[in-house]
Each structure stands twice: as C-alpha cells, then as structure tokens.
Automatic annotation (TrEMBL):
Gene3D superfamilies in the cross-refs: 2.160.10.30, Spore Coat Polysaccharide Biosynthesis Protein SpsA, Chain A (3.90.550.10)
EC number: 2.7.7.64
One Pfam assignment: UDPGP
Protein's name in the database: UTP-monosaccharide-1-phosphate uridylyltransferase
Cofactor: Mg(2+); Mn(2+)
Amino acid sequence: MSAVPDGLTGRSKELADLLVSLGQEHLLDGYTPEKGKTFFEQIGTLESSYPGGIKAYIESAKELLAASARGDNPLEGWVPSVPNGEALEFGSDAWCENEAIGAVEAKRCAFVLVAGGLGERLGYSRIKVELPTETVTGTAYLDYYVQTILAIQKATKSRPLPLAIMVSGDTETMTKEMLAANNNFGAAPGQITLLKQEKVAALADNDARIAVDDDGAPITKPHGHGDVHVLLHSSGLVRKWANMGIDWVYFFQDTNALGFRPLYATLGVSKKLGLHCNFLTVPRFPGQAVGGIAKLDNAAEGKSMVINVEYNQLDPLLRSTVSPSGDVAGPDGVHSPYPGNINSFVLACKPYASTLDKTKGVMGEFVNPKYADATKTKFKKPARLECMMQDYPKVLPAEELVGFTSVANWIAFSPCKNATADAVGKTPPACALSAEADQYFHCAEMLRLRGCAVSKMTSAETWDGITSDILSPSIVLAPSVAVSYTDLKTKFPAPDFVTISAASTLVLSGDVTVRSLNLDGGLVIKGTKNAKITVLECLVKNSGFKRVEAPDDAPESTRIRGYETVKGDDVPVLDLVGPGLFFVTTDPVTKQLTTTRKPDCSLS
Ligand code: UTP
C-alpha cells in the first residue's frame, strides 16, 4: 500500500506526495480524514513559510545534524582580530560630532522590533512589550518605542518613519490588541507593520525525521529571531523602504528601553565609516556571557567576515589561534578587546535590500541537539534549526563594511529578561527591577554629565531579593523631551540652576525646557505636542513618590517586581494642553507652582 492515504486530492495530495518523497511518510501513519484539514494546514504552513519549503529545511537539517554529530567546529580555520569601529564616551566631543551626523541621517531611518520571543526566562504570562519600562509613569515598552520614533520624526521634521514588528503565534494577538486599544500609540495609519514568524518542524533524529506529538501532528518550535530577514524580504518591506528613500534600518529587541539613547551617535558612525552593518555594542568583560564582535579571517579559503562570536566559542577560538590565554582583557587591562553584542544594529537600507534580493533573507542556521548518549544517534528531545538576526553579516561578501559602535552599558543596554527569583545573584540581574532602575539612572546620569546637581541615593533598596542603589532619584525624561544628548543640552540650558535631591521623582514629557529647578520631592510636567513649556524659578518640595510592597491582588506586571510606586497627594501634576507657550514658576508669595500661558500661533 502506498504511504499516501487514499482519497486525497489537490493541495493535500501534493503535500502528502512531498512528505513521502522526503522520507517523512511516518507523518502520514496515523492519518485520518477527520484530522486531514488541520494536518495539511500545518504541513502547508511549514512548506510556505520556509524559503525553499520543507525540502530545503530537511536538507539543511541533515547537513547540520551530521556536522553536529561529527563534532565539527564551525570556526575551524578562522583567525579572530578586533574589527573596525568606534568607541564613544557618552557626552564627549566625539559623541556629539557623531550625533550631529546622525541627526541628519535619522530622518531616513526605519525601525525593526523583534518581539516574537516566548520570554520563558521572564515567566510573564503575557507579551513582554506590554510590561512597564518603569513604575512611576507605567509606560509600556511598546509605547516607549513608538514615542521615541514619533519624537525622532518630530525632531527631524520627517514623514512617518516606518516600524516593523516581528511577532509570532505566541505574541501576535496580544500585540495587535495592544496597538488597537491604544490607537497605535499615535503612529500614523500604515506606519507600523506586523510581520509574523512561523515555527519550524522539530526533528526526531539525525535523518531529520519530523517529530510528531501523541495526536500524530508535527511538533513545531521557534526558529529564532533570524527569521526577521526572511520576513522583511518576503513582505517586500525593505525594498519598499529603500525605494522611498530610507537609508538606515535599526534593529532592536523587545525589552531594552535604553536602546535608543545612542541611536543618533550610532547612525553617525554608520554614515562616517560607510558601514553596511554597524553593531551597537557595550564593553565586554573577559568571560562575560555576552558574545563578542570579531573580525574572522580564513586564509585558506580567502574569506573574511565580521560577526558575533558566542562567548562559549570565543575563548576556545582565541586559545587555538591568537591568544594562548584565551578570553582575557585587552589593552585597557579591564575589558575584552572584542566589543559585547547586545543584538541592536543598524543596517544600510539599500545594500541590505540588494542582499535580501540575492539571499531571500536566508541566514546561516545552527542546530543544538541534546544527545541521549555518546553514540549521538538519539536525542533527549526533538531538536530544530535556529537562526539569529545578528548573524546577518555571514552572508555578506568581504568588501561590505561591517563594524561597531561601542558605548557604555548604562546608556545602551538593560533588558528585562529574567524572572526576579532567578535574577537574584546574577550580574547584571536583567530583571524588571534592574531594568527600571537603569531607566531612572540613565536620565539622572545624563543630567549629571550635563552639569546639573543630581544627588545619588545613599542606601540601597531591596525588593524580592534584588538590591539596587540607583532606583532614586527616579527621573523619567520621555523621548519627546530629547532624542539625543545634543537635544538634552538645549533642554537644560543652565545646569547650574538645576538641583534634584536623591529622594526625588521627576517626570518630564513633551517639549519642556528646564531653566531653573530645585526639586526635593515629586514633580510631573506633561505637555501635548503643541505645548512649548519652560520651567522657570521652580522650587518644589513635597512628599514625593514612594515604592511600597505590591498588594496580593496587584496585576501580574507589578507582582513580578514585588513593589509598586505611589504618588504623594501633594505632588503637582501639570498636564499642559497646547497650543501655546507655558511658563511654570513657583509663586514667591504662595510658594505654589503657577502656570502662565501665552498663545503662540506657530504651535497650533
Ligand atoms: P530572547 O533572547 O530574549 O529570547 O530574544 P526570548 O525567546 O524572547 O526569551 P526566552 O529565551 O524564552 O527567555 C531576543 C529578542 O528576540 C526576539 C525576542 O522577542 C527578543 O526581542 N525573538 C526571539 C523573536 O522575535 N523570535 C524568536 O523566535 C526568538
């Protein structure tokens, strides 16, 4: 009897024939007509979502599984060196020079958020992008990202800058609902595009036989964030962006609100060095569990590439080639000479579009089977091919320039990835509390570097086992206040007249310029986009905000951090609705904040 069930016609018959021709007839073993529609829909999705279909996937899987069983070293023959790039100190002249270049380029930038991940380590039951970046304003990650893009658009006077969000079956519905419920956070119709990644087949053995569950359905698993390149190609988005004059594409991940602060400087480096791919990186400590960006040369094959080398591969690679002592500090005696990858990078849009035309976005894949025993023939659980978005440069010819921009960690990277309980003892904890603390800290630190007198907290706070000494002062400068350090300087033109105590909480949102402020407590000033606000001679003292233990019935997003933030009754909240010029001062007689408004026709 043929393995293809009788009575199949049309697309179902074609797919059944395909499975048989690929040695996957076991998938048809338990076939019943009742299961037929769903079964062939699943097979059809596997066939259509992978470039080259199931055949290409199985062929690639067989090769990679064989290499894995042989124990091949994928980096055999490659010699590492430090690639071309620029290390920038926040606020330095070099930083500001690159920001000036980036400020011109930003009006031609598109954005790609990869948000299809399950977030198993975080253990939050919903999508990560709905979590608050901090608990003073409760601004969700997705809101913050869109706010940033709209602020860049306003600052550069550009048309709507496109944002693509990669979602998966795990995140699609909730992401759509969140955008719809919030009117796309103010983005223009069509400005945001959702791209859905599909899962790939899990494999039961070295012959790449597709694993099935108890109901006979194929088991599928996530293919990784590298899918984003295939989707950006198959949707035609990158080609469309290139045709409409977009020059740069910035890729970033779901829970790193700091990722935009160095954007202008990074775009400046991309433009100045003519980089096809520019990794935004942070200094890496030797042995740190963070990949390093390295130039790899293979003399025998006459090849060269700049890529992220995973930390567990970097040490053996260095030992076997240029550095017998392995992954050790470089010339500064502290950091690895190989900058640390944070999975944020800028691609030059037109060369990227041309590369996608050639490769269809297919990335180098890898497989990581957990073998049941030394024979390496059985797996403990089904394996699947995976791909990572930062591996993109692997498909580039050597003449395409790939480099890095290295900036301090505090201004670029603080993701919320780990459940609080698992984060205890980890450095950095990369949990909700540490991400929130870094969100406040980077604003406080930017103001300090500007010359404002911003005190530091004198004793640390601990919530659910995570301790931080940078949670206060809790300063939130919304993206609408400044999208670059150069912008921020103009918003704080007289830093000698700005003093913020360690116990303070300050929230500024909108076009706010602070000329003179002495804050010991809480202050919230929010302006609509046509309100131009100046803070003059403000002396504010009140009970401020407090972090208190999260009540048992608090929402899950609060419970996962253990605390919530509560505003004191005497904290002024100014919601200033334009159009108009607003001046906020402290009345010398009543000591109360007063706001005067002057109409300004140019702001309507
Ligand atoms: P993470 O390393 O944070 O993985 O992904 P994750 O799957 O979200 O979380 P864990 O490992 O289960 O805890 C880095 C970025 O890549 C996205 C994530 O949403 C995050 O922004 N990602 C990851 C995808 O978009 N698709 C994937 O298949 C995997």
